[in-house]
Amino acid sequence: MDHDRELLERLSAFTPVRFDGEVFRATRLSLNALAPSASGGRWMVPGETATLYTSMEADGALAEIAFHWGQMTPIPSKPAMLHRIRLGTRKSLRLARSDLIVLGVDWSSLGSRGYERTQAIGAAVAHLNCDGLIAPRLGGPART
Questions:
Q1: Cβ contacts of residue 58 below 8 Å, gap of 6+?
Q2: Residue 141 lies in a domain
Q3: pLDDT tens, position by position, 63-97
């Protein structure tokens, strides 16, 4: 994937942080909670880097699965499970909503799955050899 040089420069200006804490992930009951997604999503282009989507708050993880399942027809009827995971990273970028706006994220398009810019950011973060991205949940106050 070709990366936007300006985006890489802007992201390089952030000081990476370590993270060691508890996160949450809601999945189908039969899915391994530690199995990353390779099919793409809000922060990664399909087929690029396998990504483990989590939330720092249980409500955020539940809201995410509800949002995604709400996009499906028919809505899945299988049970979901909320997982509590201990996670550690050595080099994560922590981006606030204001940072994401400066980086070109259009908050008004996110409910319609307008992921092009957030996917470019996620791919650039991976290209910079970061092992995590800490960002606000795009549909609410929880951090993911």
A1: 24, 82, 84
A2: no
A3: 989 888 888 899 888 899 999 999 999 999 999 99
Asked if residues 36 and 48 have their Cβ atoms less than 8 Å apart, the reply is: no
- Six token digits for residue 51: 């990504």
- Let me know if residue 70 belongs to a domain: yes
The CA R_g of the chain, rounded to the nearest whole Å, is 15
pTM > 0.85: yes
Counting the structural domains of the chain, the total is 1
Q: Which pLDDT band, with edges at 50, 70 and 90, does 139 fall under?
A: low
Within the chain, where are the H helices? 5-12, 58-70, 97-102, 116-127
Asked if residue 142 belongs to a domain, the reply is no
